[in-house]
Amino acid sequence: MNELISPALGISPIFWPTLLLMLIYGIRYTVFTGLMFIICRPQFNIGRAHFVPQASFKTSHHVRREIMYSFLTVLVFGAVNGILYGTGWIHASQLYFQLADHSMIWFYLSIPVMLIIHDTLFYWLHRAMHTRLLFNLMHRVHHQSIYPTAFAAYSFHPTEALAEALIVVIIIYMMPCHPFAILAFQTISTAINAYGHSGREFYPIGTDTHWLGRWINTSTTHAAHHVKGRGNYGLYFLLWDRIMGTFESPRK
Ligand SMILES: [Zn+2]
Ligand SMILES: [Zn+2]
């Protein structure tokens, strides 16, 4: 066994970071989607369940598919990042490990900046994946959940998971970021993703017409994306959907 992971074979430098990252992605996914699924079940009177046929929550086959694909995604996310660290390619990125290398203001600011860049890259990837060819190759699995549960947060075909992992890699090469800031950014991202697929709305009625709320991709607007199969391609925000005219009102 030791020979299998010996440095001479070039496996061990990739093996441990991959395993560690798979654990981080897996635990984070399980905690956030599990908690969101539990509190959003029909028997709990929390938030508004204003669009989900309740029966879909009881379809265990549906939930099992979402969880199975999500754990495949965890493997892909772990592998992509494990390769990056294990091969040393990460040193060509702008990742920095000493907090003193940049100001603390930048450390905190980098988290929302990563969210904004991620939202932008995701919007265009998502639009591309809604072309006929890429939809069949990459995105159909995610849309098998017409009425998703929180577990659909990572429910992607492995080709989509690979593309999703790579757009985060692009961010690390684009801007200086500390591993703790990335940890915070991806934790916020997972929490928002779990909420976005939860079937419940926690924002007040009329958020989509509020001066600030109209820029937020809520659970309601993402549910409209799953039901209609078009529009609202953003991840956290509706900025690009509003600019590019792809906003789909959930009221129609
Ligand atoms: Zn889509
Ligand atoms: Zn979705």
UniProtKB/TrEMBL annotation:
GO molecular function annotation: iron ion binding; oxidoreductase activity
Swiss-Prot/TrEMBL keywords: Membrane, Transmembrane, Transmembrane helix
Transmembrane stretches, start-end: 14-39, 67-85, 105-125
GO term, biological process aspect, one: lipid biosynthetic process
InterPro entries, per database record: Fatty_acid_hydroxylase, Sterol_Desaturase_Related
Any one GO cellular component localisation term in the record: membrane
Highest taxon listed in the record's lineage: Bacteria
Subcellular location, record wording: Membrane
All residue ranges annotated as the Fatty acid hydroxylase domain in the record: 112-246
The keyword Transmembrane is assigned to this record: yes
Name of this protein: Fatty acid hydroxylase domain-containing protein
Protein source organism: Ephemeroptericola cinctiostellae
